[in-house]
Amino acid sequence: MIKEQSKLYGLDHLRALAILLVLLFHYLSFGHPQWSTVFTDVGWTGVDLFFVLSGFLIASQLFAQIKKGKTISLKEFFLKRLFRIIPAYLVVVAIYFCIPFFREKEALAPLWKFLTFTQNFGLDRGNYGTFSHAWSLCVEEHFYLFLPFILVFLQYSNSFKKAYWIIIILFIAGFALRLYSWHYLYQPNINSNTKVDYWAMYSYYPTYNRLDGLLIGVSIAAVYQFLPAWWQRISKYGNWLIFTGAIILAVCFQFCSKLYEYNTSIYGYTLISIGYGFMVAGSLSPVSFLYRWKSSITTLIATLSYGMYLSHKGIIHMTQVILGDWGIDKNSTLMLLICVALSIAGAWFLHLVIEKPFMKWRDVVLKKKQVVNM
What is the largest CA-CA distance in the chain? Predict the structure, then answer.
């Protein structure tokens, strides 16, 4: 029997894969080598992998407390999220608003939308496309806000065993809202001559259309924490779970990978999230190759993934402008490699100067809180 590890290396591998997919997909908006267009149909799904990972990790932490018979501490949960998410985010927002050269496009959405995490609602990518990738952080923040309150309600009402109905209802509601968004919000504007990207505004960015990956992650966490007998049987087939996920994704990339298409907008987010869900479940299995494979490289990239996510577009933009003036072809593989390397370096600096100190401060604050409550 393989002993379970305290460090889940499989999740690090998938997190590293997710940020590289996102970075390479966004790189296509800049000068890029022709071969990199292979990421056109697959790179955007990196954000769905992030959603599945976040859904599992956050829900699993909260479920572990419930499993031990503890009442969820909303104060502790939000303090952890505050110190983890907000400092680096505010620094990058400040850079975007104070240093115009960092902006990869012409205009930013209003500051209040970034500060309230509502930028993903009504986001006009055509006219306010700078830092548009923060939309997915808005979705995750909404998830962080509502999940613990829902769980606390279920605890106090003694209805936790019926919680699966909430997941089912949210899946159905998401599907219905995507249908509505496509037929009544996007389609009437499809022939509009304006620069507004109505498909992204109404179908791609809103939180209510993009909950599938988070719900898949929560479902995996529920089985992982509350159904040990089920999980023990399932986890015996870790590599088969990963293989099944890869097959599902391969099929999805044939039929649901083209953005702006009906199949992708209605079914694609769900199917792709299911495929990544199988891979996440497989990576948690002690018998799988992802679980047993230790890599300092993927662990480093996973650690820096949040900083890379926040800053990579601005770094790519500045790098291409500066090095382009020095004679390096923006469409060359060399430029791509330099941009990726500098994106990692920028994320490392952000981690070292902002993320790490605030995480240490968080531990101090939480420790003091525990002492006071003793």
Answer: 66
Average pLDDT in the 190-219 region? 91
Looking at the 3D structure of the chain, how many domains does it have? 1
pLDDT at 368 over 80: no
Residue 219 belongs to a domain? yes
Polymer length in residues for the chain: 374
Average pLDDT over residues 254-275: 91
Give ∠ CA 231-233-239 in degrees, rounded to 5: 90
Q: Which two tokens stand for residue 88?
A: 């680096």
pLDDT of 370: 64
pLDDT of residue 1: 40
Q: Which domain holds residue 277?
A: 9-373
Average pLDDT, the chain: 92
Element spanning 77, H or E: helix 74-98
pTM strictly above 0.70: yes
Is 4 domain-assigned?
Answer: no
In a domain, 3, yes or no: no
**What percent of the chain clears pLDDT 70, i.e. is strictly above it?**
97
39 within 8 A of 32, measured Cβ to Cβ: no
Q: Are residues 95 and 134 in contact, defined by beta-carbon separation less than 8 angstroms?
A: no
How far is Cα of residue 193 from the mean position of the Cα atoms in its chain? 32
3-state secondary structure of 108: strand
Is 2 inside a domain boundary? no
Distances (CA, A) of 177 to 82, 155, 250: 30, 29, 26
What φ, ψ does residue 317 adopt, rounded to 5°?
-60, -50
Is the pLDDT reported for residue 2 higher than 50?
no
Contact 265, 175 (CB under 8 A): no
